[in-house]
Design a protein that fits this description.
The complex is a heterodimer. Chain A is mostly helical. The relative contact order of chain A is 0.05. Chain A is 71% helix and 0% strand. Chain B is of the alpha+beta class. Chain B has 2 domains: 163 residues, Penicillin-binding protein 2a (Domain 2); 326 residues, Beta-lactamase (3-Layer(aba) Sandwich), CATH 3.40.710.10. Chain B is built from 20 helices and 19 strands. In chain B, strand 2 and strand 3 form a beta hairpin. Chain B is elongated. The termini of chain B are far apart. Classes of the chains: A mainly alpha, B alpha+beta.
Amino acid sequence: MALAKVNSQHQSRRLYFELGQQKEIGQKLNAEYSQLQLEQSTWAMHGRIEDIAKKSLKMKSPEPKKIILLEHP
Amino acid sequence: MSLFINNKVEKTFFELSGIRRRLILLLFLAGFLTLIFRALYLQSLDKNFLQSKGNATSTRVISLYADRGKITDRNGDILAISSPVESVWANPPNVIINKDQKLELENILKLSSDEVDRKLLNNKKEFIYLKRQISPEDARRLQALKIPGIFFQKEFKRFYPAADVTANLVGFTNLDNIGQEGIELAQNKFLSGKLGSKKVIKDNAGKIVDDLQEVKLPQDGHDIKLSIDSRIQYLTYRELAKSIETHKAKAGSAIVLDAKTGEILAMANFPSYNPNNLNEGAGPTRNRAVTDVFEPGSTIKPFTVSSALDAGILNPSSLVEVSSGFMKIGSATIHDAHADETKPFMTVSEVIAKSSNVGAARIGLMQTPKNLWSTFNKVGFGIQTGVGFPGEVSGRIRDYKNWGKVDQATISFGHGINLTLLQLAQSYTVFANDGEMKPVTMFKKEEAPMGTKVFSKQTVRTMVEMMEQVVEEGTGGNAKIMGYRVAGKTGTAEKIGANGAYEKNKNIGSFIGLAPASNPRIIMAVMIDEPSLGSHYGGVVAAPVFSSVMADVMKILKIPQDIKTQNKVIPQDKGSSKETI
C-alpha cells in the first residue's frame, strides 16, 4: 500500500512537471506570436508602404481623369 | 563447534548478575519511550510549526501573468499590443563584475559608467532595477555574461505600431501597464487582466514538481475593437499634417464619421507624438478633437436656417435682408467679410452659400430664443457626446433666458458659443439620417443605433441641397471630389484672446461636409488652429483636407459615384479659391 502511494505520488509529480513544461512552451509560443503580430503590423505600416510604393517602386495614384468606372447592370 | 560456543555464551550470559540485566533492559526501555514520546510530540504537538518550516523550503507562491488586451481597428489591424520584454535588476552587495563585463553591460543597457557605479557600488539595497523593459535580444546578450547578482524579470511592454498616427486617440500606458491617456486610460479596467497565483512545490533544483491545488487562475484582459479604420485614419492624419505645415498653423484636428451609424472612422490630431518612445517627452498628448473647444463660426449656420425652415418661418426661396453686409443691433455691428454692396437681399440658399453673417443673424432673430436654443440643444451643443473619452468637455451655450438680442444674433452665426470638433461632427449626422441625430461612438457597431429626431425629412433635404451650393459655387469650392456630390460648410472664426476680445490675426479655419450628397454616407470635419501662412479661411486651409481624404475614403469603402465623372472636373489649382468666409 505504502509503496503504491509513493509510486503514484512520484508519477503524479513527474506528469505535473511535464505539464508545466508544456505550459511553458505554450507561453513561449504565445509570446512569439505577439512578437510576430507586432512585427507584421510594423512592416505593414501605411506610411512605410506608401513610402516604398512612391520612392522605390515609383508608383502613383492615377489622376481622376484617368479613372473609368465600370458599372455592371 | 557451534555447540561448544553456545555453551560458552550461555555460560557467560548466565554469569551476568540479575541486577545488571534488569538495569540494561530498563535503559533500553527508557530509550524507546523517549523516542516514542519525541515522535508523538513531533507528530502531534509541534506539527504545525514543523510543517510550515518544511513548506517554506519547498513550496513557493508564484504569480501567473495576465495579458493586457489588444486594441485593434475595425478590421483587426493592431493599434496596441503587449509583448514580453525583460527587466534587469541587481542585488548590489552580491554583484561580482570585472572591467570587461562592466563595459559590456554599459554597452548593452546604454547606461553611463557613472550611472552603473552609482547603482552597483556602495549600495546597501538588495534590489535595484538596472534597466526596465529591454528587448529579448539584449537580455540574451546580457545573460550570456553570467554576472553573479544580476537577475532578469519578465515584463510586458506595450507597443503601438501606428505610432503618432493614432497616439492622441489610443493613448499609452506607464511602465507598470496602467493606462495613462486615451483609450488605454478610459478602458484600463476592461483591457487589463487580473494577476493569478498558484502554490507549488519546487525541488532543490528549482523545478516545479507539484501543484498544491491552490490556484488562482489569471484572467487575461479583453481585446477592444475600435470603430477606427486605420487606412482612413492614416490618410486623415497625413492630409491634416500637410495642411498644418503648408499654412504654418499651430495645430489641427479632423474627424471622419460613418454618417449612418455614428461610428468614428478616424480621429486625428496634429502635432502628435510617438507613444513608443516616451523618454523624449510625451508632448501634446491631448485629443484636441474631444478635449478642446472652439467657436464654430459659420459651420453652425445650417442649424440656424434649418430651425427656421422646420418651424415654417421661412422657405428656401424667401428673401432675407442683408443690408449690403452691415447690420446694427444696439451698439454692436455685424458685418459680412466679403459683402456685395449692390445686394440688399439674399435668398436663404445664398445666405448659406455665401456664408452671410447678417443673413444668418436675421434668420436667427426671426425665431424665439427658446426655439433656436432647443434646436442647438437637440443636436448636442453644450452636452458631452458620451463617447467615453477621458477629458471630454461639453462646450458651452448660454441659457436662452439670458440671451440679449445681440447674443441671439451672434449665436446664430456661431459666435458666443463653443463646442468640440466631435460635437460638431456628431450634429451633422442629422443631415445624413433624414433629420435624426445619431450618437457617436469609438467602438465598432454591428448596426445603426437609434437616433433622436431633430428636423423633418423635407427640411434636411432642402438644407443638404443648399450645402451642395456651398461647394458648387460658394465658399467651399476646394471640397469638390470628382464623381461625387458633396455638401458642406466652411467656417472661419477669430479666436478669443486672453483679455476676452477677438483677435484679428488668430483664427480657426474649419470645414465640415457630407458625401455623397444624394445619400450621405460619410461626414468629415476638419479644424485648423491659427493658420498663419497663405490664408486663414476654412475654405482654403480645411476644405482641401476634406477633399483629398474623402476622395480616397470613397474608394476605400467602395461607395458608388452619384454623378457622371465625364461632366465634372475638379479645380486644378487648390490654392486659389475665392476667399470668402
